Amino acid sequence: MDRPLKLGLAGLGTVGASVARILAGRREHFTDMIGRAITVRAVSARDRSRDRGVDLSNVEWFDDPVRLAAEADIDLFVELIGGAEGVALASVTAALERGLPVVTANKALLAHHGVALARLAERHGTTILFEAAVAGGIPIIKTMRESLRGNAVSRVFGILNGTCNYMLTRMEHEGVDFDTVLREAQALGYAEADPTFDIGGFDAAHKLAILTSLAFGCEIDLDSIFIEGIESISLEDIRTASDLGYRIKLLAVAQRTETGIEQRVHPTMIPADSALARVDGVTNAVAVDTDLLGSVLLAGPGAGGAATASAVLSDILDVAAGKTVPTLGIACEKLQPYRRARMRAHEGGYYIRLQVADEVGAFAAIARRMADNMISLESIVQRRKDHEDGPVAPVILITHETTEAAVREALEAVRRDGHLREEPRMIRIETLA
Ligand code: HSE
Question: Which of 28, 105, 163, 386 could form a disulfide with 132 if both were Cys (CB 3.0 to 4.6 A apart)?
Fold first, then answer.
């Protein structure tokens, strides 16, 4: 039998403690499976005294995770600290500089520094594994980096933030308003410490940046992502979408276009009868459109101790079995520079909601502005309502495929015409295979 794999574990929060417990509890099974034992040799965590449900008395403790990474007698460094900078970045850098493989769940670290760290790993003959960094327990990294290697990917998209999906699901099913459901998500521990990271779309963007690189063999480019959160989605939008046969999801989409790669995170209307529309609550889902396989959809838990530990363990077992894959799927020198497609060139259908003063010519003016911008309408519905500022007519437009630039210009012209009582609302519609 080969000698044991000695592991250094930095971060013993929910996921780290879960990994340590499972490694202890399934020790014999894992040893039988890969022909060598896996031993936790060193750990680093803030609180030594906390009971984590696993015996760590024979394990070397480090107050400083960077020292652990640089000096401990280990074969593999597992980073479960989190954060794009600080000790997470310093400890991963230190481990790679020693030529140690790194397993991490840190999406922010990879979204900001993934290419630099991949290059560092390659220079030192090692690699970074990060199954847990995107969509928690769903095995999407391995699927994209290994199983779909022979395919050309045209689009990768999905529901990558459980908090937003939980909130939108509750709003739709129970009619609960945005602020109440956000408080619920925080109480249940779904939301990040700063909930704007979730509801503003930034958490999903970090995950998308990583998927884009794997899908298209390009450098990670977080800053080029168009991001719009769910803050402005109202119960009325959700109800209207439902009446029209759609559901609203926060989608993260990366797509190859004629002008480059489009990366976007925004509330999206998708057909209510699609498989993705039925992904409810905190569940995540990722779809990949490819030339050979067509469309594949993976769904499952996107967060939580045991689910995320499942992904971390799969990486640890791969390292123990001696399996290596380049960090971003291909040699760093073969990574293409990221070529950004501008959001104004985005093509798709749009849902537009306008609160219009109920006066002669308003409806006609809207229709004219759409035609001026070559926007063809699939439907236009007007309902009269009494409003504190006088009668208004909510007007709902669904466009055929058009461009973002045309929609923005048309809405600007409608606004200038002076018939609107509120800012126009617009939600993009995604075509699913
Ligand atoms: N806050 C994240 C979510 C957790 O809601 O999906 C995992 O990144």
Answer: 105
